[in-house]
Amino acid sequence: MRSEFFGTQIGNLQFTIYNAPMIGRSLIIFSFVSIIISATAYFFALKKKSNEHLQLARISFHGSAISVILGSFLLLYFILTHQFQYSYVWNYSSTDLPLHLLLSTFYAGQEGSFMLWALYTTIIGIVLLGYSSKKGWEVEVMFVFNLVLGFLLLMLVVKNPFAYIWDTFPEDLIHTGALPQSEGNVVWLDEAQGIWAQFPTEGKGLNPLLQNYWMAIHPQILFSGFSSMSVPYIFAVAALLRKEYQTWIPVAKPWIVFGTGILGLGIILGGFWAYETLGWGGYWGWDPVENSSLVPWLIGLASVHTMMSQRKMGSFVRTNFVLSILCFVLVLYSTFLTRSGVLGDTSVHSFVDPGMWAYWILLSVLVSFALLGFGLLLVRNSAMPKIPVEHSFLSREFAIFLGATLLSFTALFILVGTSSPIITTILSGKTSAIDISYYAKTSLPFGIGIAFLMGFGQLLWWRNSQSSSLLKSLLAPMVFAFIFSVVLFFAGMNDALIILFIFFSAFALAVNVIVGYRIIKGSPKYSGGTVAHIGMALMFIGFVTSSRYDDKQTVSLEEGKTLSVLNHYQLTFLGYQPMEQEKYSFNIRVEKDGVAEIVSPVMYFSKFTNGLMRIPDILNQVTQDFYIAPVSLETPERTSKGEILTFKKGEMKKFDGMNVTFVDYDFSDEEKGKMVTQAREVQIGADFVVEKNGVKENIKPLFTMENGEVQYLPAKLSSGYVFTISKITPDKENTENSSVEISIAHSQGISETPKKDTLIIEASVKPYINLVWLGTIIMVLGFFVTVVRRLDEARKKE
């Protein structure tokens, strides 16, 4: 394959010669081969204690790292220079995207996200090589690390981000014969045989839901967390290979704290993105993709605490191996869930089916790394030291044990719910997702226990605590928690479990503020744990107040008229104005207690989704958010009283005594080619057969696009019924999944709408939601303080 292009302009024809090697693909293959050589050399260095093999391993690793970095920069270069001959670049980018969103298309799809994951893992590997070499763990650690990086590079070999678009759409873009005398980019594939291909002058663009500044931040932090969570697994397996069951903990501890902290930050930032952009007013929907990041984070959190106990008292030897192995295995499992296609229709985030090869590679890698970790643990089990129990029930060790158990069981229940599509398929042959109420019901009791232990555990000493002094230290936090809960009870919070959760969250907050103040007065570097607990306690309180006790109201705002909603908020719709990229902002004056501000939610029609996109706007206040999500705009124009029906290919539905059947799209190969190459004119028809009283009639409403403008042209039955396409969803890979949304109305069935524009919105109040975001910042700060402390301790022991 070849990748460099040289073009000349002949009239309106862009003529391109296809004549240079495909560098990107070669870099990926070279990197994969190099990392395998490095892993093999480290293996022989481990077995034979050979310096020659060690040098080869280092050289091969650095060769692989350089190739990954160069490949990443090459893909980014192709994106920034709009090289639409590459299928990935065409699929996710376009020339109209601003720079920050254009950069983020690097990881908008499966291939690019694996590339980003491989890049961050490579960077961590460079740091880890130096770190482990200084600690005397290089050979074992880098052997296991190379296996991890090898998996990611294997996925890139299979899911090639440098594939040409004519290889993706050969039937539409590869032709033979004379070159066309029309505008477009042309490339010779085999000039001697007259084989040529056309490639687009414009890309499909980025999904509108991803066109947000958080797209440039959230995925990068999340993948940094995924990459970091592999390091505890690597150290655990390395320790099992070395038969060292205690000394690996101080070396691995900074990495598990860093990985857990950065992954937690990524999860919460994803929640803020959803809250700010999606318009449903929440930040966590218990979607499988959200859960699959949460589960390894909970296990990482448990591991942070049990490692502390082993470091201090020598306990939890086997537990720490299990949790560290699970940290990465669960990241792999989440990757399998979200990228193998097994979640299919049950997740709004999961990627499409990646193909059979990628599916089996993901499954095989998951099983292989699980077997490697737990297999070695089983083999070494008898040789591990058995630490006698020397602590009482009133000890920090026992509190850590209970806390880790609760975190692990929370993760287990969430994992079972997330895996329900797989479980139901195996048991009943039918895929179904569990109701989201399951997560709240199962997680809340565990959350109560975790909140209690976040406070109570901080008051305990190692091995044993004195009951008298413990009772004294409990008094002030308990009084504070009681008063706090009583206030919320009279404010309307009367659910018993929720009140209990709030009580212990307030208790944990009070305890950690008191303990943290004492620690900071003495030595601030030891305050990381208490600071993180303060942040989590604030988050817990914010979760309850903002989501369970929010207030919502759907209202119609006629332009110029003022309406009172939700505890005396005065809303006035002022009209709308155009923005960039054919978007419209809808200006609403919000007044309360004599203070007025303008809130401007956005709506626009997306050509990408062929549907209406809605972006909320938020009035941020100290004690609450006033959240406005747009629903629709009713205009004074005459509109038909139509009914919206959605049809899958071949589906028949009854409407007003008629049998209406969607036959298929009228979508020729020529039109498919136009769609791919972004031609100026595209036309797609939807063929329907309508039967009434034994008489059949064919009808075909049209979707057209000319010069970038989309139109839906209706078709009319002899009986007067008008069919208009509302949305088209053709599936090129599996035409049986194609669907169309149709508005059916009678030509005489019209009515007058209000004389002025009327904006329909959903307004809601989110009390104390800022506690969620403030708690996140404080929690991450606590993790950062702990990482700095652990790294400082590790350096002192070198």
Features:
798 residues; alpha+beta; Tick-borne Encephalitis virus Glycoprotein, domain 1; 6-stranded antiparallel beta sheet; 27 strands; 21% strand
Provide the β-strand percentage band: 15-25%
Count of β-strands: 27
What's the N-to-C terminus distance? 50 Å
Rg: 30 Å
Oligomer state equals: single chain
Largest sheet: 6 strands, antiparallel
Mass-distribution shape: globular
Structural class: alpha+beta
Helix content: 40-55%
Q: Which spans have pLDDT < 50 for at least 5 consecutive residues?
A: 1-21, 348-352, 675-680, 750-754
- Count of DSSP H/I helices: 22
Mean pLDDT: 85
Question: How are the SSEs placed, and which strands pair?
Answer:
Elements: E1 5-10, E2 13-18, H1 23-48, H2 51-80, H3 87-92, H4 99-104, H5 110-135, H6 138-158, H7 165-168, H8 170-173, E3 174-176, E4 184-190, E5 195-199, H9 218-228, H10 230-242, H11 248-277, H12 288-313, H13 317-339, H14 356-380, H15 396-418, H16 420-428, H17 437-456, H18 467-490, H19 496-522, H20 528-548, E6 551-558, E7 562-565, E8 569-578, E9 584-592, E10 595-599, E11 602-606, E12 611-615, E13 617-620, E14 624-634, E15 639-640, E16 643-648, E17 652-655, E18 658-666, H21 669-677, E19 681-692, E20 695-699, E21 702-706, E22 709-713, E23 715-716, E24 721-729, E25 739-746, E26 750-751, E27 758-767, H22 770-796
Helix pairs in contact: 1-2, 1-6, 2-5, 5-6, 5-9, 6-10, 6-14, 9-11, 10-11, 10-13, 10-14, 11-12, 11-22, 12-13, 12-15, 13-14, 15-17, 17-19, 18-19, 19-20, 20-22
